[in-house]
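Sequence only, no structure available. Ideas?
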Amino acid sequence: MEKVKNILRFDEMVVVEAMNKAGGLALLWKDEVKIIEVLRTAFTIEAHVEDPEVNINWWFVGIYASCDDQFRKQQWEVIERRKRLWGEKWMIAGDFNDIVSNEEKWGGNSRQESNFQDFKQFINGNQLMDIGFVGHPWTWCNNWDQEGEIKQRLDRGFCSYSWSKVYEKIQCTHIDSYASDHSILLFDTKMNLGKRKKRFYFDKRWLKREDIGEVIKSAWEQEMDGSRMFQVVKKLKNCRVALLQWRNNFQANARVKTEQIKNQLSDLKSSLGSTSKDCKDSLKKQLKEAYKEEELYWLQKSRIQWLREGDKNTKFFHASVQGRRRRNRLNKLQREDGTWTESEHAVSKEIAEYYRNLFNSNDVGDLTEVLDGIPHTITDELNGNLMKPVLEEEIKAAIFSMNPDKSPGVDGHLLKSVNHTVITLIPKVLNPTSLNQLRPISLCTTIYKVIAKILANRLKGVLHCCICKNQSTFIPGRQIIDNILVSHEYLHYLNNKRQGKDGFMAVKLDMSKAYDRVEWSFLEAIMQKMGFQYRWINWIMECVRNVSYSFNINGEVKEYVIPTRGIRQGDPLSPYLFLLCSEGFSNLIRQAAQTRKISGMKISRQGPSITHLFFADDSLIFCKANKDQATELMRVLQVYAKGSGQLINLDKSSILFSKNVRLNLKHEICQVMGNMQSVTQGKYLGLPMVVSRSKQQIFGFVKSNIQQRMSKWKNRFLSTAGKEIMLKSVALAMPTYTMSCFRLPSRLCKELSSLMSNYWWGEANGKNKVHWCSWRKLTRSKNMGGLGFKDLMAFNAALLGKQVWRLITQPNLLVSQVLKAKYFPRTSIFRCKVPNTASWIWRNLMGARELVEQGTRRRIGNGNNTNIWDDCWIPGNINGKVTTRRHMDNGLQKVHELICQKSWNTNLVFKNFNRQDAERILAIPISLPGKEDSHFWIYGTDGNYTVNSGKCLNDALLVRDLIQGRIKVGDPICNRCGEDRETLEHTLLNCREAKLIWKLAPIQWEGMMEQQGNFRNWWTSISEARNRPEGGQHISLSVHILWQIWKARNEEEFNGKKKKQPWKTIQKAHQEWLEMVELDTKESRMSTDETIALQQHSSQSASEYGILEVRIGVTSDISNHAFGIGISLNQGDQGPHRGWALRARSSGSILVDEAIALKLAMCKTATTQAREVQLQVQNPQILNNIRTNRVSEIRLATVVDDILQLSQLFHMCSFCLVRKDKTQLSYKLSIHALGIIFDEEHWFP
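Reply:
I predicted one. Tokens follow.
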């Protein structure tokens, strides 16, 4: 090694000798590198480095890990212990002899996921950041020939978070070494990236400044000449320039601002006097604001949507930004010929050339066959709706549908053209090396997005007319789950078909660069054939054709490409335009099926024959497994590809055959299909195509994905509130898609719950901390003392119940038709049996059937489709069913037989049912328009099925008594007062120190002394104040006081601080509570203002002449099951001139009776031929039900539907609240109505 040192001209060296021709390390350096000390172990060299340029010291650790798994695991434990010597700033690099996934391996057998856990745990446990690399992805090769060759990324560099903050621009380059089986790793901490042009972006922190509104207003209102579009572009540019000038007037760097305030506070520490104290308080307030600004800055940079600012997660946001920047940086790319780009300029040229070729149009073939058979479905009426003038509400809806945190334009402002687009390349894999591993996302300008969203919203409304039922994506009412359910049934049939002379196959197709290859002429021809008018087509093609591209490469916009084909990923219009194109493919398959060249597949006698299922560019084709149909399918694909520009990726496409297809026939068909691979398992739309016996293994990917997401070391920087949101918004959301289709094994659910519970409680030194509260308690709702986490098994059942609900409420869906024909063709889904041959999905749905049945009732419309004796249709009865025993001679079957002229046949009802059933039947309103009967979910807010129908409360705070009881450690006596055992109640309520604090609190909970022996009872009692005025605020302030009492206790217990004065604790709690109220007020201000305006508008009196005021009074007679209705008509200032007195049968609900009274009043008013009416009601709940059309009571829902239908009889019909003193005449008429038999009409002079 001494000779090597001299050849390489290094001055110093430290060596760890090899043992038995294995291991061995050497560290060499020159004198200009300042090394303070060097430590050695059997497998590491640790150098303490001094860097005078940045004025810090840090440790470099070189490593050569063992090839033996068990020995290497021990080495990770050694590093875990030794890292305490290195402080916060250190870097470790070398041969780790392990990888983190199969993506870092080429050739040989794939490793099981469990084999990576030790190395992943080492990385995450030590909070290491992967420095990444530039160049080829492999650092080691066994140098074998052909099939035996194996390459892996065994060598790499990691660093600590604190070290990465200092050397943010570090770069690792893989350099080929021909004399070794390992590559050279070159780390450069002083990367010269050159001076880049800074892009403008809108900083969210500016919104906290009061003068920003005036800056934007003055810039926008400057007079401009030119077209309206040109004026908008110039006004936006003026705003950008004005904001840049305005920004220079204050310190925008929150970190610099924080350091300045800290220095000022340090200078004030030695000063005395009241002036010094006031100044110190002011600086502390400024420091808190500076911390908030820094957190908001890094939140915006991180682009994380599931976590909000305000929970002190600055480190997490910063780490996320660093990780994303490192992942997205492009320094080298491998060309198609195997060579590498050597500079950033070469990278940008390679990207531009690649996309120039991709976006270049090919010769489009004859479209006659593709277009022939596509029906003319867009009528003149639909075209009129598409091309009507744009309303201000449409523009507002388009703008407000955009995420407010996204950049308004490709770089915060418009570029040369409204339709110029910057493409950002997002890595599909870690450390991409080729352009195929990058996904292009188009960053369209704001103005273009507004235009495109308006067009897309209009186009979306007509897609159901022109897109076939086999396509499930982006069509209102259709879902991706539909395709999963249908495909699973058909693949289940294939997998179990072992007999019959005809075999079948399912062909899963993968489209290569589907959006980028769409030919514009093909799209235009499809729209013309469907019947879209020329003007609409011109609008769409203007959006598509007049586009140009640049590329965001390492934060800088470069190159310029003008395409001649393709639609953009990121354009709001693109998904809908691609559906129109895919209709050409669907039409070709339909034609082949009609001529019997391709046979569809049926899985039941009465079920539909399906040839294909589409979800965007994911295609699944079903046909007979023979060479003729395979040949025809390939011909169809070629015709479609020639016309549309699409290209089938044969390497990623696959075929699944039924069991009765011979092996030699499978090989022949695969050859005809371009050597597609034959598979027995795979994934369709991200879920398993076939579910086998081992459910734990099939759905193991769910656990792996959650584990991988939660084990990232940066998650440790999250605050407690951040961890709660992480679990609810990310971890618990990840399995939702899978659980919507399949019931996960109970063992897997328990493992997932354990995983999330471990994450919630955290770990220390590689071991899980004590779980002071069971996960079952944490899954309770917050008002029940939990934290609102989901019980996975119950959540899984609720999600499956959602699919059952869709089957019974949307029978016209393709999935509903398939499943009904196969499993319940002649009965109800609630009464069908589960056959032994049922698919796994159907068994799962049947497991959730009882849950749905319990809350489902039949809502009576015309009564034609509801069985009197079998269906659940009577509100108030057990299970909603009739309790009367049916007599043998009773021939009644359907509910409509009990109805006569849109009202109940009272005599017939009392004759055939007991009194309880009869009274409840007669209380059911009957639909005036005669709507069909429907299903109603009684536990929801609007009759539709929904999936969704504090820590200390669970003894989870670590007080002394709890610790001593759980782990037998410490003294249970309170350290603050020494008078009693430190229980939860004692700490927060009964301790001498706590009592002093509560005594000074601005809120006193009177009458709570007897509840203070049990915290749960005390909390339940004060929670009842939520319903009284300002009760929510009082509870919120109490929570802040509890939190400050707990914090003060911990500061004394663990940090040895002196007891805080009680008034200071109250002051701190009150201050934080005010900050929270201020934040909530800011967020809800816009919504509140709009609500107040709406209420003011609604309560205006219709005093203008011509508007007829209808006032209604209701009086109930409970003993006689009746209620009286009084109606008076007022017009202008003339006073009442006409009225009615009506008597009706009471429903037993005052709310329903008042709604019925409103309905009958509208019926009477309609007979007057009035054009403009205002109906004045006294019940605000009814008014809200009418406005939102959301009703939770089944009988009220029918009445509200009738009211909305009746409102269409008038030219103008409005509803508003009115005080009771305004309806005195109507009230008197309602009292009079109780004594009448027939309706009475009254005229007033």
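Residues 408-416, 1083-1105 have pLDDT under 50 and may be disordered.
Hope that gets you unstuck.
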